[in-house]
Amino acid sequence: MSWSQMQPLLTQGTIDTLYMVLWATVVSVLGGLPLGILLVLTDKGGLLQNRPVNKVVGVIVNIGRSLPFIILLIALIPFTKLVVGTFIGPTAMIVPLAIGAIPFFARLVETAIREVDHGLVEAVQSMGGSVSTIIRKVLLPQALPSLVASITTTVIVLVGYSAMAGAVGGEGLGSKAVTYGYQRFDTAFMLVTVAVLIVLVTLAQLIGDGVIRLLARRGRTAT
Questions:
Q1: pLDDT attached to residue 222
Q2: Which CATH class is domain 3-222?
Q3: In the chain, what are the domain boundaries?
Q4: Angle 148-152-153 (CA atoms, 0-180°, nearest 5)?
Q5: Counting CB atoms within 10 angstroms of each CB, which of 13, 16, 41, 202 has the fewest?
Q6: For residue range 104-124, what is the model confidence (pLDDT) as tens digits?
């Protein structure tokens, strides 16, 4: 396959991959952030200590993390079709991508929140700060660099997930690699597709690292 034939396929595949990853990341952050915070708050010694709730949420998150994505993808076909109306195409793949990434991101959020100095929490608490105030004024701002790193890691994972989704009708670069690279024995196209995926992952990491450095500089300036 010549470059002129590859280019439109790679362009469309990249657009579909970015579309899936972007929206799946948004849903994962919206779903995983409160779950991760809840895991910290309801744990032993937490502001909302509730061991039964913590155990239930922890089990749900662990189950979600333990399922291989390709199996989750197939298992969610009926649910995806119910939500979107179809189980093929980039829009349909957002559903399993997000569901697969939410528990992963929740654990990263939990780790980031636990790194916050508990002394700051106690100081705000002693001044009569509510739980919501502590979350908004202490936990999230203090954990922000770690949360950005967690989002970056989630984006990279979702790029890999999206490539697997291409094997079952998800479109994107994974689908193009399977259809035009693997099935047609076009090694050159396969290698170029892999190179594009590597570039996407590298760019995501560079952007994430840049934001973290910017936050670190602002933190030093503020102090």
A1: 54
A2: mainly alpha
A3: 3-222
A4: 120
A5: 202
A6: 999 999 999 999 988 888 888
